[in-house]
Design brief:
heterodimer, A: mainly beta, 7-stranded mixed sheet, 0% helix, 53% strand, globular, B: mainly beta, 50% strand
Chain lengths: 118, 110
């Protein structure tokens, strides 16, 4: 069965960076793009961007350019997102999700809580 | 960016029909393909795909969920509503980048 297993919660300080992971299993990793989505507490969902694991090609929401960097490690079927220059506004749950054609998100990871606090 | 507007809260009695709407700031349809999708999110959980391309039921989703609409106006219907359906429901468009979500509708029981 398709699973996306994300790394654990992070507590970080303003100005720092954090890198979170999303390990895929149950399907051919290079066959589907992986997207990342942000959800601030009690708020709606925001699409950050997507990466093609086969080519490494990326597409970003303009709002998150310079904030998020998406990469993959094909050997371990893992996608990564690095968030830089963190501020309290980056405090949120971050989800990875598999992107199906259309596109829509058919499988989601369990989410990673990133807390930015001094 | 395409803005998707949803009512914040909908209160429905158990066993009745719930109709959740989503209005897009511009058309999200291309020819006969409606690029609107729906998700359910229960508290403390990740979102789950319910409906894709406006009216197609995702795998494993009960048939009491259905979707309709085209252009700028879309509807998610739950009939009949069960206690397990208490959740937030989000629409999402894929007509243009960036992909955008509605602000969500919280389904409550009367």
């Amino acid at each position: 069965q398709v699973q996306l297993q994300q790394s654990g919660a992070e507590l970080t300080k303003p100005g720092s960076s954090v890198k979170i992971s999303c390990k895929a299993s149950g399907y051919t990793f290079t066959s589907y793009d992986i997207s990342w989505i942000k959800q601030r507490p009690g708020q709606a969902l925001e699409w950050i961007g997507a990466i093609n694991p086969g080519s490494g090609g990326t597409g970003y929401n303009e709002k998150f350019k310079g904030k998020a960097t998406l990469t993959v490690d094909k050997s371990s079927s893992t996608a990564f997102m690095q968030l830089s220059s963190l501020t309290p506004e980056d405090t949120a749950v971050y989800y990875c999700a598999r992107l199906k054609e259309a596109p829509f998100f058919d499988y989601w990871g369990q989410g990673v809580m990133v807390t930015v606090s001094s | 960016d395409i803005v998707l507007t949803q009512s914040p809260v909908l209160a429905v009695s158990l066993g009745q029909r719930a109709t959740i709407s989503c209005r897009a700031s511009q058309s999200v349809s291309i020819s006969s393909i409606n690029l609107m999708h729906w998700y359910q999110q229960k508290p403390g959980q990740q979102p789950k795909l319910l409906i894709y391309r406006a009216s197609n039921l995702a795998s494993g989703i009960p048939a009491r969920f259905s979707g309709s609409g085209s252009g700028t106006d879309f509807t998610l219907t739950i009939d009949p509503v069960q206690a397990d359906d208490i959740a937030a429901y989000y629409c999402q468009q894929s007509r243009e980048s960036p992909l955008t979500f509605g602000s969500g509708t919280k389904l409550e029981i009367k």
